[in-house]
Amino acid sequence: MVKFLADETISHKTAQYLRELGFDVDSIYERGLSGTEDPEIADLAEKEKRIIITFDKDFGEIYYFSPKRKLGVILLRTASQTVETANHYLEKFLKYYKNLENLYGQLVIITEKRLRTIRKEK
Questions:
Q1: Buried-state track 58-93, b at ≥16 Cβ within 10 A, e below 16
Q2: Beta bridge partners of 106
């Protein structure tokens, strides 16, 4: 089963909503790790085999410029960063994306108009 880690930019309410949909989601906020540096969060996600969910584009850069990492990131790039917006796009993506296990090692960018996945060359 795929596991997720909600960055501190993602509300704990969204983490709870995704749990209600049946997903295994942990939250930086709920763990009391708010303020933790992004590379440390990436290390934690990689160690626990969790895919990071975030609004923070820095995780896209960590993914892209860390060739040895086996990191998965779902980056929401929407104009609105409300709980409702995050819930809507994440639910839509996670319910209809086939083979969620393939998200490990990918960067997924979700916008209002488009979905883009990037997989680093090995």
A1: bbbebbeeeeebebbbbbbeeeeeeeebbbebbeeb
A2: 119
Q: Which two tokens stand for residue 9?
A: 């930019």
In one letter, which amino acid is 50?
R
The confidence score (pLDDT) of residue 19 equals 97
C-alpha 101/C-alpha 110 separation (Å) is: 18
Q: How far separated are the first and last CA of the chain, in Å rounded?
A: 24
- Among candidate residues 11, 40, 38, the one with its CA nearest the CA of residue 25: 11
Q: Across the strands, what pairs with 53?
A: 6, 74
Using one digit for the tens of pLDDT, what is the confidence trace for 38-62?
999 999 999 999 999 999 999 989 9
Mean pLDDT, all residues of the chain = 92
What does DSSP assign to residue 36? -
The amino acid at residue 20 is E
Distance CA 9, CA 20 (A): 20
